[in-house]
From TrEMBL:
It comes from the Bacteria. Transmembrane segments: none annotated. Residues 6-129 form the Glyoxalase/fosfomycin resistance/dioxygenase domain. InterPro entries: Glyas_Bleomycin-R_OHBP_Dase, Glyas_Fos-R_dOase_dom, PhnB-like. Gene3D superfamilies: 2,3-Dihydroxybiphenyl 1,2-Dioxygenase, domain 1 (3.10.180.10). Signal peptide: none annotated. This is VOC family protein. PANTHER family: PROTEIN YJDN, PROTEIN YJDN-RELATED.
Length: 137
């Protein structure tokens, strides 16, 4: 897998509806995972979208999720740029540069779904998500 850069949108309890709408607009394949698939299936918000990815025939990739329970949703600032792939060295290098002088919200470390993931805001106020597929922490 090569590295990819794409938008990642946060929604307030309607990510599935929004991502299905975008699939209707652009076509393609939509994959959706819920919070309950990776945690307590009976917890509040378990049916919310933890991660959705739309890949279109034109080569577009759009990712999105519901804002996790307990986190604030701010329309207008609910957008990040996602970097993902399996080249751990390349992605870690970009993470180090992007997070330098910024704020780390989620440290780049192994997550419950098995990938290494981190979130930061760069020194210019842009949100970034980095996901290293199948990487070891």
């Amino acid at each position: 897998m090569s590295s990819r850069l794409n938008p990642y949108i946060s929604f307030k309890d309607n990510a599935r509806e929004a991502m299905e709408f975008y699939q209707g607009v652009f076509g393609g394949t939509l994959n959706v995972s819920t919070f309950g698939e990776f945690g307590d299936k009976d917890a509040p918000g378990a049916d919310g979208v933890m991660h959705a990815m739309l890949e279109t025939p034109q080569g577009f990739t759009l990712m999105g999720a519901d804002t996790p329970p307990g986190m604030e949703h701010n329309p207008g600032t609910n957008f990040s740029v996602s970097l993902s792939g399996d080249d751990a060295d390349e992605l870690r290098g970009w993470w180090e540069k992007l997070s330098e002088g910024g704020q780390v919200a989620v440290p780049l470390e192994k997550q419950m779904w098995g990938d290494v993931f981190g979130m930061c805001m760069d020194r210019f106020g842009i949100g970034w998500m980095v996901n290293i597929a199948g990487a070891q922490s």
